[in-house]
Amino acid sequence: MEPAHKSAPQHASNDIIFGMLLVKTFLAPSKIEGIGLFADQDIAKNTITWKFSPAFDSVFEIDKINKMPALLKDFIKSYASLSMISNKYILGNDNVRFTNHSTKPNLISKKIDGEIEKVAMTTRNIKKGEELTIDYRSFDKNDANSKRDYLQK
């Protein structure tokens, strides 16, 4: 099985780079929590499945979020992650926000040269129909040292 996207392509500085989800996925009820993100294709080990795109994803500074109305602030803090790289909230504007947490994930968060933020990469071959999971503590500064119950599962 060949990876859909083994490494980040090199681009000229004036190119618009679209990251977001780089593999086919679908949403469905999850056995873990609510709605989950599922592979809609077989995905090879070491495939980058998501990467940050400044042309597509949203970035919020902490002080700006704290000044937002409560409903908007709650949404961002629920679906965005506090980056360990930039110390800003990153909101993936695609279905990546439905990726559930697992202590035994099939995705890892990894810093790759040339990428602004960490990417999500498969840890093993993933079959079509399998839920994509990641350990939130590996990329979200708020979750990194948290003792919340859901992070222990």
Protein architecture, described:
The protein is α+β, with helices and mostly antiparallel strands. The chain has a single domain, classed as SET domain (Beta-clip-like, Beta Complex), CATH 2.170.270.10. It contains three helices and eleven strands; from the N terminus they run βββββααββββββα. It has a four-stranded antiparallel beta sheet, with no helix packed on it. A three-stranded antiparallel beta sheet has the order 5-7-6. It is globular, with a radius of gyration of 15 Å. 28% of the residues are buried. The N terminus is likely disordered.
Quick summary:
Helices cover 12% and strands 24% of the residues.
